[in-house]
Every structure is written in structure tokens, then in C-alpha cells.
Write a structure and sequence with these properties.
By secondary structure, the chain is an all-alpha fold. It has helices spanning 2-5, 8-16, 22-30, 42-66. The chain is elongated and about 50 Å long.
Length: 67
């Protein structure tokens, strides 16, 4: 494995694995209070998640523009 990671291509791929999206889900759960879906059916859940993501993105954009 060490020999593999010494190549630049493998090192770049391995570095990309360090990127994490989990803080976004933590913020949505703890700060925004979204812990479970209120609706059933995949289409309805997809719509509900889209609204949650939209709210998160709007909140983030407002905060970034204020700074």
C-alpha cells in the first residue's frame, strides 16, 4: 500500500477521500432540528429533503453574503 500511495495519481485519489460532507448533515440535524422525515413515499421524501437542502443553502448563502 505504501508503494501504491507514493505515486502521484494514487496520492491524489487518496487525498480526495479526506474531503467530508458529514458536517452538513450534522448542522441539518442539530442546528436546524431535522431528524426524521414527516412524509412517506420516495417522491414525497425527495421533495421534503429538497426543501431541507434549499433551506440550508439559503441560510448558508445569507451568512456568506453578510460577511
Amino acid at each position: 500500500m505504501k508503494d501504491r500511495l507514493e505515486t502521484t495519481e494514487a496520492g491524489d485519489l487518496y487525498r480526495r477521500r479526506k474531503q467530508t460532507v458529514e458536517p452538513v448533515f450534522g448542522i441539518i440535524k442539530s442546528i436546524m432540528g431535522f431528524r426524521k422525515f414527516s412524509l412517506r413515499d420516495l417522491a414525497k421524501v425527495t421533495t421534503e429533503w429538497t426543501l431541507v437542502a434549499l433551506a440550508y443553502n439559503c441560510k448558508r448563502m445569507a451568512r456568506l453574503q453578510a460577511a
